[in-house]
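Reopening this ticket.

The earlier resolution said the output was attached, but the attachment link was broken on my side. Pasting everything inline this time so it's all in one place.
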Amino acid sequence: MAKKKEVLFEFPHPMDNDCLIGHKDTLKSFLDAWNNRDEHPIHPVWMLCGPRGIGKATLAYKIAKMVYGNVGDFFIIDLAHNLDDRGNLKTDAKLISVKTVRAMIEKMQMSSMSGQWRVILIDAVDELSVAAENAVLKLLEEPPAQTLFLLVTHQLSNVLPTVRSRARVEKMHPLTMSELRELCVKFMGDEEISSEILKLANGSFGKIANLKSSGGDVIYQELIDTLQSKNANGNDMMNIAIKIASEPALYGIVLDAIAYFGLADLYPTASQGISDINRLNLKADITIFKIINEIKKCL
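Inline output:
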């Protein structure tokens, strides 16, 4: 029987996370608009855009709780609430289905019209299928009264221009090193987080959380040590490739290693190779081994 992977750290879902570090400017922009909504109607569609793991969803849930205040209605569209064509929960999909959006619209139309605000939170727009995004677009064309849309977006270029044009886009920035350290202390206590891991995170606490919860920080350091070792052979590189391949969330550390050694020319091919693992159903360990081997050849 395979040994169950030990969970080193557990991090709260954004809905349950009351600790928002950074993004004071974005929060202030919303609060100013919300507090003055009687004089100047608030824009009904807010798009929170920025890299993964910087706190966009945490901010979105914070705003949502404030607006609907446990009295109005709150609707969530994400992969955790994804539905298949029959309306059954299907959380292993890579894209949010149009059925999920349509089911939310039906619930919203049946919700109480008590005069309280309703909030629709989509996390993330990047993960909507084409049909689902078009269904959302139709809803945004004529937003219902007293309804606030919070659209989390990881990459603005992946969003339909027609959707972007109907939203107030708030561009959120990566976290600073001090903000990352503050979050590390909050959620990991006395655990030592190296400056190398903080730099590797590129302002994303979500990346640190993924690395620490999976042991990826240790694997990353092993990868760097293996590549720097003059005595490392094919077996050593295959062993580290197998470790990385065991957890899809770790595939990106190969690209981080390319950046660490300043091998920009390798990045496009390596990035495409990692993308092809899922797209073409390639063997992850072999694909990652080939990338590691190419890095080694350049050193």
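Reporter confirms the inline version is readable. The chain has a mean pLDDT of 91. The two ends are 39 Å apart (CA to CA).
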